[in-house]
Amino acid sequence: MRKVFKVILILLIPVFMLCGCFLLILAIDFFMSKDKVVDSLGKCETEIFLTYGEFQDYTDYAKYTYKNVDFSRNKYFKKITPESEKELIAHIGDFTSWVAAHKENDPENELVVGYDFDYASISDDDYVYIYDDPDYPYLGNYNVYFFDTETMTLYYFHNNI
Question: For 85, which of 6, 35, 76, 121 is 20 to 30 Å away at the CA?
């Protein structure tokens, strides 16, 4: 009986070790994962990330610059169309109104001070990806990714009520 117990123990120890390693890898991936849409563009040259709020109520604005980006196989970004431009402008308009509201509460906040998006940067050569969370009302929880090809800059807008 003791020999059987030792054999079972010897066989189970590596299984527990492998399970522990697997769980550790999953935990690291969960806590350290970056935005898959941003990652789909490759390595950025510079990154600016500004935020206001906490946990469920927060607004984020980021800018990433790139040297080269290939959109030909990108599963997220699509060339901007008149329809997607209207959608983009609606989301950025909502986002800008939230930045203005935050300015009333905290005029020195990093997001309020650093928000610098210019609608004039939108052109026919640009790319966009918009995710609206279906569990929220329209413009309630969204991620907007706008890539300006002239400046090779990705703009990220997130808001959630």
Answer: 35
- The arithmetic mean of pLDDT across residues 137-149, rounded, is 96
Nearest to 122 by CA among 93, 157, 62, 80: 80
Contact assessment for residue 145 and residue 129, using Cβ atoms and an 8 Å cutoff = yes
Q: Tens digit of pLDDT for each residue in 38-86?
A: 999 999 999 999 999 877 778 999 999 999 999 999 999 999 999 999 9
DSSP state of 134: T
Phi, psi of 71, rounded to the nearest 5 degrees: -90, -5
d(CA 90, CA 23) in angstroms, rounded, equals: 42
8 A C-beta contact, residue 12 and residue 20 = no
CA distance 122 to 16: 54
